[in-house]
Amino acid sequence: ASTWANVPQGPPDAILGITEAFKKDSHPKKINLGVGAYRDDAGKPYVLPSVRTAEQKVVDARLDKEYAGITGVPSFVSSAIKLAYADSLDPSRVSATQSISGTGALRIGGAFLQRFYPGVKTVYIPNPSWANHTAVFSDSGLKVEKYRYYNKETIGLDFEGMVEDIKNMPKGSIVLLHACAHNPTGVDPTQEQWRAISDAVKEGGHFPFFDMAYQGFASGDTDRDAFALRHFIKEGHNPCLAQSFAKNMGLYGERVGAFSIVTASPEEAARVASQVKILVRPLYSNPPVHGARVASAILGDAQLNAQWLAEVKAMADRIIDMRKLLKLNLERLGSRRDWSHITSQIGMFAYTGLGPEQMELLAKEHSVYATKDGRISVAGITTGNVQRLAEAIHAVTG
Ligand code: PLP
């Protein structure tokens, strides 16, 4: 028999399955709201003009293609840290490394916690959470559990449930928090609620792990979107952080990210950094340089940085506008449902509250494709398709 005769067929990736079905559909006005990538109002992938300029600068500099160090391009890493933490702390307390985008940052974090975290090696993620969190952390050797997050009845935050669950975790657990633009629900705590969440995490002696995949992409303001992280630091937490530049710089395929751990002192940061290097070396030796150079060229240049911030805001604003337009169109069609959650949610995704059967109908009868959990990528909505989308949603919910 062949060596691999007993390898079982694995299930296909849920999102890729949607893309496949979408591609096969011959409907001229089919709509794909499955993928989590920004689209412009013509439904096309968008390369930020600031990225184009920065990329040209990088090419014109005719840099060599030597290996980066294990922790990546230093100017990128220090700029990324500044973007996330601003002046909430002394950066010499932060141990940081470039990572293979947000996923890689989470994976390094998982591996570091698995090896060195002295508390309970269980990471609690929200229910629901980004589909990959469970796999990333369990492949890192951590136990994965869930805390209450989403309230089906209100299509909003189950704030009381969340705080109660945090308080009831075994003392010293790891709590994964989406810094902003929660995926898949689009439901974020208010600043007032974040304060209470910080208190609950402190009360439990837990360790906060922030996943910040959408800084700037939620509200359009990179400082506002970093509120939770910076508030936790102000409150004396020493969290770790996974950053991604996939969405806010549109650098998806370049895989630009950073992983950092806030420590108690520069001396501790140095010890932690030495161990992060020891972890990364056998994983991939060192990260790719091009995307990090591009991001660094933007973050390190006042004019380009200002341009980028305006472009991030424009992306966030377009998404916010599409939420309003979808709600408006549903109301115009006479939908008796309350769609206010569409506009109170934030970020790339909206949780419509539609069930799996309704999502099935959307695909089969209206050629509108999205995940079965009722999540739609608002980035895939345009002024050109929003009316048809509203009609389809109204038809399956009416
Ligand atoms: N974390 C969350 C919550 C996400 O939604 C994503 C991307 O969809 C990621 C992390 C990581 O993405 P990437 O590895 O492309 O940076």
TrEMBL record:
Catalysed reactions listed for this entry: L-aspartate + 2-oxoglutarate = oxaloacetate + L-glutamate
Cross-referenced CDD domains: AAT_like
UniProt record, GO biological process: L-aspartate catabolic process
Required co-factors: pyridoxal 5'-phosphate
Name of the top EC class for this enzyme: transferase
PROSITE patterns found in the cross-reference section: AA_TRANSFER_CLASS_1 (PS00105)
Gene Ontology CC: mitochondrion
Subunit composition and interactions: Homodimer.
Protein name listed in UniProt: Aspartate aminotransferase
